[in-house]
Amino acid sequence: MDSSAQLSTGQATGAVSAAVAREQRNGFVAAVVAHAIWGLLPLYLHLLASVPALQIMVHRLVWCCIVVMSWLLLRGGLGPVRAALRDPGTRWRLAASAALISINWLGFTWAVNNGHVVEVSLGYFINPLLNVAIGVAFLGEKLTRARWFAVLLAAAGVAYLTVMQGRFPSLALVVGMSFAIYGVIRKVIPVEAIDGLAAETALLMPIGLAYLAWCEWAGTGVIGNGEWSSLMLLAASGLITAVPLGLFSYGARRIPYSTIGLIQYLGPSIQIVLGVFVFRETFSHVQAVSYGLIWIALALYAADGLRRSRTAAT
Predict the structure, then answer these.
(1) Greater confidence, 259 or 4?
(2) How far does CA 86 lie from the centroid of its chain?
(3) Which residue of 71, 115, 215, 234 pairs with 221 in a disulfide if CB–CB is 3.0 to 4.6 A?
(4) CB of 227 within 8 A of CB of 50?
């Protein structure tokens, strides 16, 4: 091979490497922005404190459906959404995942607007470990010793919190478990993230519209009460829901899964900071010990994931 050919090959390889690096950098930024938006969500929900949590959740569902469907129409159509909804098995799975994400949204919204931001952030901290537990219990997955220890340490943190506070952290576990099971169901549905969200919200749209109409008829809706600022904020929930999901989907395809695993702790970390320093919620020594055990468990889990990914790459 002559020098000119070698130069061309080297330039082509360099161009490909630069393009890959640029894609990974863009993917990392997109994933970080997505989780930052999710972390800052309590600030948005706090502006809607006068609206019942169930109404907020239903508005979010309806406006999200409108935004996502409009986006898909602009990008080329709703073919994958129609295909998913025509298949009975896929439709039932999407209905189940839609119910779970609705529970998740409702629980999170109620928690924020009733002064439980710190508690509900726990649900997202333990979510990765709940995923592990579900994988072992229902999918036959095997764990390394490090991951077993991480799961047991997190369980000890939850048990300590339960005993010392005298109550089970049900709110955190409802939010965390609903999202974990949602993730498992979505993993086995052969539908892209945005298409799946469109299908999920479309399935619940008739129920949502009927509920909002009933609220207006009963005099509890935001339109009938002239709460136009709240209505504008609720309409924005479509973008607030769809945009971070789109960014996350973009990023997840371009960076390693282990990196995604670390970035996902950004959201609940922001939430706990907001809960303590913005909303002035208490953070007792009991919570500090419990959360400390869970954070150590997450660090062990993340370190094991990084070690395994590096071993696989060599």
Answers:
(1) 259
(2) 26
(3) 215
(4) yes
Dihedral of alpha carbons 299, 41, 85, 251, sign: negative
Q: Is residue 12 part of a domain?
A: no
Rounded to whole angstroms, how far apart are CA atoms 250 and 46? Answer: 28
The whole-model pTM stands at: 0.86
142 confidence band (pLDDT: 50, 70, 90): confident
Domain presence at residue 225:
yes
Residue 166, token pair as written in the block: 């005298």
Residue 76 lies in a domain: yes
Question: What gap in Å lies between CA 97 and CA 148, rounded to an integer?
Answer: 28
Residue 263 tokens, joined:
């970035």
- For residue 48 the two structure tokens come to 């809607």
- When divided into structural domains, the chain yields a total of 1
Whether 105 is covered by a domain: the verdict is yes
pLDDT digits (tens, 9 = 90+) for 80-125: 999 999 999 999 999 999 999 999 999 999 999 999 999 999 888 8
Structural domain harbouring 282? 20-313
Q: Please give the structure tokens belonging to residue 37.
A: 């938006």
